[in-house]
Amino acid sequence: MISRSILFASVALTFTAALATPAVAEEGMWTFDAFPAEQMRSEYGWAPDQAWLNRIRASAVRLTGGCSASFVSGQGLILTNHHCIASCLYENSNDTDDLLKNGFVAANTRDEKKCAGQQAEIVTAITDVTGDIKSAIGTMTGEALIKARDARIAAIETESCTDLAATRCQVVSLFGGGQYKLYTYRKYSDVRLAWAPEDRAATFGGDPDNFNFPRYSLDASFLRAYENGKPVATPNHLAWSPRAPKEGEITFVVGNPGSTSRLFTQSQLAFEREVRLPMTVAVMSELRGRLIRAMEESAQKEREGLDLLGGIENSLKVYIGRTTALNDPAFTDKLAQEEEKLKALSKGNAAIGDPWTAIDGAMRAYRANYTALRFTQPSGDLYGYAQALVRAAAERVKPNGERLPGYTDSALPLAEKRLLDERPVYPWLEDLQLGWSLSKAREYLGADDLDTKLLLGKESPEALAQRLVSGTKLADPAVRKALWDGGQSAIEASDDPMIIFARSLDGRQRELQKLINEQTGGPLAAAGAKLADARFGAYGEKLYPDATFTLRISYGKVGGWAERGRNVPFATTMGGTFERATGNAPFDLAPAFAANEARIDKSVTYDFVSTNDIIGGNSGSPVIDRAGNVIGAAFDGNIHSLGGNYGYDPLLNRTVSVSAEAVQEALEVMYPAPNLVKELAAKKR
Amino acid sequence: MISRSILFASVALTFTAALATPAVAEEGMWTFDAFPAEQMRSEYGWAPDQAWLNRIRASAVRLTGGCSASFVSGQGLILTNHHCIASCLYENSNDTDDLLKNGFVAANTRDEKKCAGQQAEIVTAITDVTGDIKSAIGTMTGEALIKARDARIAAIETESCTDLAATRCQVVSLFGGGQYKLYTYRKYSDVRLAWAPEDRAATFGGDPDNFNFPRYSLDASFLRAYENGKPVATPNHLAWSPRAPKEGEITFVVGNPGSTSRLFTQSQLAFEREVRLPMTVAVMSELRGRLIRAMEESAQKEREGLDLLGGIENSLKVYIGRTTALNDPAFTDKLAQEEEKLKALSKGNAAIGDPWTAIDGAMRAYRANYTALRFTQPSGDLYGYAQALVRAAAERVKPNGERLPGYTDSALPLAEKRLLDERPVYPWLEDLQLGWSLSKAREYLGADDLDTKLLLGKESPEALAQRLVSGTKLADPAVRKALWDGGQSAIEASDDPMIIFARSLDGRQRELQKLINEQTGGPLAAAGAKLADARFGAYGEKLYPDATFTLRISYGKVGGWAERGRNVPFATTMGGTFERATGNAPFDLAPAFAANEARIDKSVTYDFVSTNDIIGGNSGSPVIDRAGNVIGAAFDGNIHSLGGNYGYDPLLNRTVSVSAEAVQEALEVMYPAPNLVKELAAKKR
Fold first, then answer.
1. Which stretch of A157-161, B6-10, B378-382, B645-649 has the lowest confidence by average pLDDT?
2. Closest by alpha carbon to A633, among A612, A604, A653?
3. What's chain B's average pLDDT?
4. Which of B286, B324, B328 sits opposite A289 (nearest CB)?
5. Distance CA A64, CA A84 (A)
6. Cβ distance A657 to A665 under 8 Å?
C-alpha cells in the first residue's frame, strides 16, 4: 500500500538536491517530455514513440488524495487502488452501514458517492520555464532566493491558468533546482466512488503482508469524474484488458511517484539516518500503539480508527525499510561511491564549485532547527483546519507573489476544497493525535524549552488536547466556511479555542520557516542547481529527476526475483487465497470470497510483480502493456523497494500489481457490477 | 531513574569483548580489588587506603531487583532509591490502598512490608579464578568453549558456597573473558520496606524530567534486611550525614553498574546502531503507546500499569540516548580512533593475532540469528514463569556442570525465589504484553517464517495471547510451587496452556542459543581474552572492566557542567520545587509537599550532580564523602550520560543524586518517621 506514506511525509521542505549516476536498466521514473526511448530500444528491442506516449499521458490521472489512476472508459470511469479510496469509503460510512467493511457497488451513476478532498487531474502540457525562474533568482541566496523563486512561480502559474474552475497550473522544481517545468492540468474536482470490494479482500494479509510477495490482494476500485453533476466524457482513455500478464512481457507503470531522495548527498543521507528516521520511527510507533489499543475499546472505534491505523502502519513500514537500507553499508557504500565519482568528474569546473560543502552547511543548520520545526506542528484534522484558516486569512490579503506557496491564487482552489469538503470528524481520534503530538513535543524539545511553553503553557498535553478538541466548532464545515469567507477579521474575532491555539503558534512557525529558508532551503536550491549542472556535464541530458508527485513513466517487465536461494514467482492465483487463509484476521477470507468459493476461477492471475521503478504516490497507477492497454493496477512495492527512496536495485526492487483479470473476476463473481463490466468492455478501438 | 533499564536489557548474550584506552580523569567503574589509588591521588591529592575501601565495601548492598544500596544503621536499615522499590509499593497496593501514590511509613518494624523477588547481597570476598577457568577452556572454540567455561564456573561456585541459605557465589567474566573473578556474597533473602515518599515526590517532573537536570526528585526509600523474621544486625554500615554537598568536594559512588559496552569493537557498535537499537526503539515505543492508552481506560488500570510504564519510558529514553550517541560522528570517531590505536600497538604480536576480524565474523553470524533469537522470546510475567518452570524441570535433572547458567546449583535459590515469591498478576497487562510481543514477532520475522508459525500456529497474536492468559493458572504461587516441586513429570503432565506454549518453544529456543554460542558467544569469548591481553600489553594492568552488575567504586567531585553557553548549577533546593510546579501532572506537587510548604526548609539542598561515572544498576548507590559518610543516593545520570554506555565524557557526563539533607527533611517534615530519624542518628563511631 504505497501511497499512504505521503500522507505522513514530515515537514514540508523539499530536499531534492544532488544527482546520482545514470540510470541502470529499468531504473527511472521518467518525465513524459524526456522518455529514454533509445535506451529502452537498445535493451528491449522496442520502445514507444511520442504518439504512444501522448496517448497514454492523456489517460493518466493524478488524484489529489495522493494517488495515481487512469481513465478506463469514455464516461469518466477511473481505475485506482482500493487503499486510495479507503478514506472515501470510511467517510461515507456510519455505525449501521460500514462501506469499508462491506464494500460498495453503485447500482447506477446516481448511486455513486462523493469523495471529499479528491480531485482528478490530467496533464495537458509540460513547458520548460527554467530560464524564466533562474533569471528571477539571479545571484540571490538564502531566504531572498526562496522568495524570488516562489514569487515568479506564483506569477507564471497565475498567468498560465485563467480558468481556475477547470484547470490547474503548477511549476515544479526538478533536479533540486536544475530545471523548472510548468505542468498544466485539466481538473475535475467532483470525484465519486463507483465500486469497491470489501476491505478484507483488498487488505488480505494486512500489515504483515504489506510490502511482501507472494500476495493475494484485490487492491482495486473504480471512481468516476463528474462535472456539473454529470459524468464527464473522456474520449482519451485506456482500453481494459482483463487478461493474465505473461512472464517477461514489457510493462509500463504510469503515475505520480510522490518523492524520492536518490539525489541526496552524503550529508543529506546522514541527516535521514541519524536524525529524521530514528525520531520518526520512535514517535510514530508510539502513535500506532496508542491507536491499536484505543481501537480495541469498541467496535465503533475499531471502525473509526481503521483508516488512520492503515496509514500509520504503512508509513512505519516505509520508514523502517528506509532505516534498514541506510543502515546497510553495502547499500550506502554504493551511494557514497557515486558521489565521489561525480566529484571527480566535476573537479576543476569553476562554474560548479563545491556544492557538496554548501549542502553540508545547509544540513548542519537544519539539524539545529529540525526538532523545533517538527514539533511546533501539532497533529490532527481539527488543528490542520485551524492552521489553514489562520494562514489563509493572513496570506490572501497579500499580493499573490508574496504569499506562502500553498496560498497563491493557483493553489487556493484546492486548499479551499480540502478545507470545506464535508468529512466526518471523530473527537476521540482528534484527541488521541493531538495529545500524542503535544506530548512528543515536550519529550523531544524538553519541558523547559520555550517552544514547549508556547505549545503547552502550564497545561499538560492531554488536558490541552482535550480542551481544544471538545471546545472547537471546526468539525462543522459551515463554521469553517464562515471563517474562510470572513477572512482576517473573522479569524481575529474568533473565540474558537483551536483557532486561538493556531493563532498563538503562527508567528513562531513562520519565524522557523524563514530561518529554514535562509539557512537551508535557499542554500540547497542554489547548490542543487550547481549539482544538476555537474550531473548533466558528467553524464549528458538523459537523466531522470527525483520524484515530485508529477506524472512519470517507468518501463520494465513482468518477473519475479531470487532471494536467499529461492525464486519468488512472478504471480499468484486467486486460488492461492484460499490456501493462505487461516480464518484469523488479517488472514481471514473476505465474506464474498468465502461465499463464492465454488464459483471463483482459481486459476485467474491475482497479483503479479514487475521490475518497474515506483514509489509511494504511484499507487493506483495503470500497468500498461506494449499495446497501450491496461492489464493491472500497481498497489505496492516489495520489501526491497523500500530502499528505493535512495536507490534502485534492479535485481531486487519490484512493483506489485493486481491484475485486470482478477478485477474482472471480482466484477463478475464476488462484487457483481454488470454495468461496469459492460462499460469496460466497450473498447474504443 | 537508571536501574529500570536493566529490566529491559534484551537477549542474554554478554558481549563485553574489546577494550578502550586507559581511563580519563573520573572515568571508570573500578573493582574493589583494583582501585586506582595512585591515579586518584595524583589528580585529587588524596585517595582512600585499602582499610577505607574494605569498610565501604562491607556496607555496600546489591539488590537483586536490579539496584544498588547501602546499610545505614546497625539494624539492617538500607538506603536506596524510591524507583528501586516502586514495584514493592505497587505489589503491596490494591484499589483501596495505593502505596505507590500515598507513600508508606512503617509505624514500627512489625509494620514493614515484604518485597517480592528482592534480596540484599554484600560482597565478602573477591578471588581471582582466571587461571582455573582459562585452563578449563584450553584451546576450545565455539559451543564447546562456552560449555567448558560454564561447567567450570558452576563447579567453582558450588565448591565455594556450601551454605546456600546465607551465601551466594558468582563467577563473573571481566574484560570480555580476560579475567574471571569469584564474588562471594552474604545474602539476605527477606527484604522489607520501611519508608517511601509519595510517588509524585520521587517522580516529580516524570518522564519529561527523567535524565535531566536541574531536578527536584525525592528518589529515596528505606528497606530493611531480615533473617529468621528479625531485622539483621549490621555493624558494618555507613554513617548518615544529612548535610548539603559542597561544590568541588570529593564523592565516591559505590554500587553495581549493570552493563556497559565501552570495550565494543567497531563491528559490535555497528550492530547496536544498525540493528539492535532501531528495532528496540520501534517495538518498545509501540508498547509504550499501547500501555499509555490502556491506562487511560480506568483509574485501576492507571494504577496497575504505572510501574511497567515507568520502566518502559526509562528504558526507551536510554535507548534513544544511545541511538543519538552512536549517530553522532564526533562521539563514534573517537571510539574508532581508540580501536585503531590499540591495533597499531598490538601489531606483530602473534599471541594476540587479529581478534577484531574474529569479532567481525561473530557479529555477522549474530546479525543472521538475532531476529529469530529475539522474537522467539515472548513477553510477560506469566510466560516468564512458564518458561522458567519448563527449563528448570529439564535442567535440574542434569549434572550441575551441564546445566544452562541460570539453573546451576548456585543460581537455583534466586531463580526459585523469583518464581515463587507472591506478587500480583494483572491479566489485562499480561495480555497486552504477550499480544504485543507476538504481533511484533510476526512483523519482524514475517507471516511465512517458520518461527512465526511455531509461535502462532493459525491463531492471531491477539487471540493466542488472550487464550493463554485467560487459561493459565500460573498467577497462583501455589500452582507454580506444585509445578516446581513436581519437576519434569509435572511439567510433562501439565495441561496449563501457558506451560504447553512454553514447552512448544523450548526446543527452538535451545537450538538458537546453541547456534549463537557456537557462532557468536564462543568466538567472542575467545577474541575477548585476546583483546584483553592486547589492552593489558599496551596500557598496563591499571584498567577497569566493563560493568557486569558487580560492585564497583567511582570517584569524582560535586560539580555542574557547561552546555550551549550556559552553566548548569551543581544543585537544586527544595524551594525550587514550588517554583517549577505547574499544577498539572507530572509537574504537580506531591500532596505532602503542598500541605507542608510553610514548614519545609526551602534552602535545603535537594538534588545534586557530580562527575562520578555510573550507569543503570547504580541506582540507589550511596554517595560517600571523603570521611566515608553517606551524603546522598545516586538515582540518575544526566542526558549526556546515556552515551556513557559506550564512552565517558568528563566534560558532560554527570551523576544525579538526592541529598541526605533532603531525605532528612522528608523524614522530619513531609513523611515523618521519628523512629528512622533516631536510628539514622545513632552514629556508630
1. B6-10
2. A612
3. 94
4. B286
5. 10
6. no
CB contact under 8 A, A293 and B432: yes
Nearest C-alpha in B relative to A285 = B286
Among residues A290, A272, A276, A271, the alpha carbon closest in space to that of A437 is found at: A290
Residue B30 DSSP class: B
Hey, of A292, A450, A464, A466, which one would you mutate to test binding to chain B, going by the most B CBs within 10 A of its CB?
Answer: A292
Q: Do A278 and B281 touch (CB under 8 A)?
A: yes
> Which chain A residues contact residue B282 at CB under 8 A?
281-282, 285, 316, 320
For B507, the grid coordinates are: 526446543
Question: ipTM of the predicted structure?
Answer: 0.92
Indicate the residue of B274, B290, B458 with minimum beta-carbon distance to A292. B290
Give CA–CA dist B379/B505, Å, rounded: 13
Average pLDDT over chain A reads 94
CATH number of B4-119+189-262+545-681: 2.40.10.120
> Residue B583: its chain A contacts at CB < 8 A?
458
Which chain A residues contact residue B297 at CB under 8 A? 297
Going from the C-alpha of B318 to that of each of A206, B64, B281, B323, B324, the distances in angstroms are 32, 21, 10, 9, 10
Contact across the interface for B447 and A205, Cβ inside 8 Å? yes
Q: How far apart are CA A523 and CA A136, in angstroms?
A: 16
pLDDT, tens only, A360-409 = 999 999 999 999 999 999 999 999 999 999 999 999 999 999 999 999 99
End-to-end CA distance of chain B: 33
Query: Which residue of B274, B324, B436 is in closest CB contact with A327?
Result: B274
Q: CA B490 to CA B478: how far, in whole Å?
A: 14
SS3 A14: coil
What confidence score (pLDDT) does residue A540 get? 87
* CB atoms B583 and A458 under 8 Å: yes
Domain segments of chain A as ranges? 266-539
Residue showing cell 594492568:
B541
Pure H helices in A138-263: 142-160, 199-202, 206-209
Cβ proximity of A370 and A275 under 8 Å: yes
Distance CA B119, CA B186 (A): 10
Question: What's the average model confidence in pLDDT over B182-208?
Answer: 97
Which of A274, A328, A329 shows the shortest C-beta gap to B327? A274
Terminal CA-CA length for chain A? 33
A171: enclosing H helix or E strand: strand A167-174
Please indicate whether, in this complex, the C-beta atoms of A212 and B446 are within 8 angstroms of each other: yes
Partners of A459 on chain B (C-beta within 8 Å) are: 582, 584
| Ramachandran bin of B679, using left for φ above 0, alpha for ψ from -120 to 50, beta for the remaining angles | alpha
A286–B282: do the CB atoms touch at under 8 Å? Answer: no
Residue closest to A133 by CA, chosen among A551, A542, A532, A544: A532
Question: What backbone phi and psi angles, to 5 degrees, belong to A415?
Answer: -60, -40
Q: What residues contact B333, with CB distance under 8 A and at least 6 apart?
A: none
Burial class (CB in 10 A: 0-12, 13-18, 19+), B599: exposed
Select the residue of B285, B432, B442 nearest A286 (Cβ to Cβ). B285
Check if the beta carbon of residue B86 is closer than 8 Å to that of residue B67: no
Alpha carbon of A298: minimum distance to chain B alpha carbons (Å): 12
Q: Say how far apart CA B676 and CA B75 lie, in whole Å.
A: 11
- Tell me if B447 and A208 make a contact (CB, 8 A cut-off): yes
Q: Which of A290, A442, A447 sits opposite B289 (nearest CB)?
A: A290
In this prediction, residue B24 carries a pLDDT of: 63
CA distance B618 to B426: 29
